[in-house]
Predict the 3D structure of the following.
Amino acid sequence: MPTVTFLNKQGRVAVDCQQGETLLQAGLRQGVPLPYGCGAGVCSTCVARARPGTVESAWAEAPGAQILKRDKGECLLCQSLVTDDCEILVPGKIDLEQTLADTPAHCRARLHDVAVVAPDVATFQLSLQGQADYIAGQYFLVRLEGMQGYRPYSMTDFQREAQTLNFVIKRIPNGRFSDEIFGNSVSEAKVDIFGPMGLATFDPSDPKESRDLVCLAGGSGIAGIMSVLDRAVSVNHFESHRLFMVFGVRRREDFFFLDELRRIKESAPDNVSIHLAVSEEGSEATDAVGDFPLHQGFVHEVAERLGDGMFENRLAFLGGPPAMLTGSLALLLGAGLPVTDIRYDRFG
Amino acid sequence: MSDATDTAWQQICSATDIIDGELKRFETGQFAVVVARVGAEFRVIPPFCPHMAEPLHESGICRGGTLTCSKHLWQWNLLTGQEQGPAERPLVFYESEIRDGDVWAKVDQELVYEFDEEDDDDFEW
């Protein structure tokens, strides 16, 4: 088994790397506080350097790899595989003397109960060999057996000692995982998972997070937010705190999770304000869907129209496509929220 | 005021091309710049984030005089270039001024961020 030594000017730490495991997974699994965002080749947060020629890329065309200076040995830790011992130069700000308190792990699981809940959205469950604890808002990397490459999926609820994890997936043209799910070729499958991961989390037991919330979600980007809200409801968070939420899709028929949102609303009707938005022109045939008011426009536009005075001093959770995230971020920064109070994963 | 005959200076855009809080990319001929507006003040900067070279006219958000790159949330005071929050490198500015309602900048030499950490290139494996 190869030994990977992570080092910088402040120190070094050596860990084992299992066959087929990425350098990021090897490091995190053994408590090395490596920087990461998506864990799946998109966000570029995990850039490091290897001696040229000593690591292989599992996905050379990864979006996050486009900025790499390969002649200098730059690599994405989340896409790097090794077969021999190697040294990896990581950013100097990382304190390699520190060890992560909670470490993610590999696990085998069985995928089942795929259910199409909207034209381009499905839910599925993973039954774990074992159990997992996670913080609301976290995600797991998931890989169908026999496929290369993990994809990040946020859990849509909150459980302790979970034996079954719940997810939502959006149909992506030519997406390998997505094709398997929506092509009906998978009713059950074996999968490898790694996690939990992610920093867009909510822990209401932390007094600093005993706050009003704002949640802005687009499409399947609502996944992690549903976990945050499930956690909040489980501790009656909205009996003493307010929620302002906008959930947007393209067309009326694209909505899903409305029963779950209704349960959140009913947990504290006076303090929970949930609005729906459709972005496609002409698709706003009514002014409500179920119990929720319906608006025309992108999520951040609707939030701006409705949210006067709704954002100050709140903890914000965002989820959705890149343009929605950027628009929502601009809205919240303009309202004076510090970036430390705005949480989201950048998977797209 | 710079010497108006100094050929190193170029007219980049009209001040009215950019509204408050906006970032816009312009070509100077040899390279690109981004012009940012904070109230009546303008700043001309390289078009990339000092962190990982994200295109700032797409990823940058300017609110209340603070520039935020939405990619990894590095932030700067847009008037001084000073880092805020997690940012580890300052913004650099092209010398600029307003002449007759236009934004001019001294763009004789491209400003390039040193994206590598100090001594990385000299690291001995």
Remarks:
- The first helix of chain B runs from residue 56 to 59.
